[in-house]
């Protein structure tokens, strides 16, 4: 039977619609597959970074050299202890010198909704809890904030992380990440850009962006990566406040990992007691 022109037009229209629908489904499937692949790649990088944190670690000496805008220097020395409990990081720093800061200590504990932070002030003989935007305050007059201790330990969890791609920095092949801190952290930084060494999974550069301005930059020295056992860490890094014109150099000396550390180092009631 001969088809009418109307039937022919209708049939062609239906076939065209089916083709468009099929193409749309393929495109959606490709986009979903690409998004899944991007998420998987990001999770792999972040997972590698967190896996690089030892179950426990003791830094026999950590040295912080703070340089003010006139070139004046102040050197702080102490010890750092870290551990993972249920895959959540706990880190404690205790200062041994100079004498006016001897005994000062800081404790950071990851939890499900952010971080718990505490600082012990020897002059007051009191432990104070750090909350909200105070996490961005200076740690003992250095360019490192209370919140930065987590980044220095190569870990972060609160916020959205995006994988931006791959590049090369100072002879290292790197993954580039963007971290948007979670609103509940009250961070003044809306974005933290990270350059993560592909071989060691250690951040070798980080930029802390406030508004549209890079306020602080963390840079690991070209030969500043070290390995203890299976784990890598930054042994020589510098945090610079680009607005204030100040900087703090962080040097890590003598690391022992996977030790059986006492829980008192990470207890808010006892972290500041003894060595």
Could you walk me through the main structural features you see in this protein, from its secondary elements to its overall organization?
Strands 6-5-4-3-2-1-15-14-11-10-9-8-7 form a 13-stranded antiparallel beta sheet. Strands 12-13 form a two-stranded antiparallel sheet. It has one domain: Lipoprotein localisation LolA/LolB/LppX (outer membrane lipoprotein receptor (LolB), chain A, Clam), CATH 2.50.20. The chain is built from two helices and 15 strands. It has helices spanning 5-51, 148-152, and strands at 56-67, 73-85, 88-97, 105-111, 114-121, 126-130, 159-169, 172-181, 191-197, 203-210, 213-220, 225-228, 231-234, 236-241, 246-257. With 275 residues, it is α+β, with helices and mostly antiparallel strands. The longest helix has 47 residues, at 5-51. The protein is globular. The termini are far apart.
Task: Identify the notable features of this structure and list them briefly.
275 residues; alpha+beta; outer membrane lipoprotein receptor (LolB), chain A; two-stranded antiparallel sheet; 2 helices; 15 strands; globular
Name of the CATH first level? Mainly Beta
Largest sheet: 13 strands, antiparallel
**Kindly, what is the distance between the CA atoms of the first and last residues, rounded to a whole number of angstroms?**
97 Å
Oligomer: single chain
Low-confidence stretches: 26-36
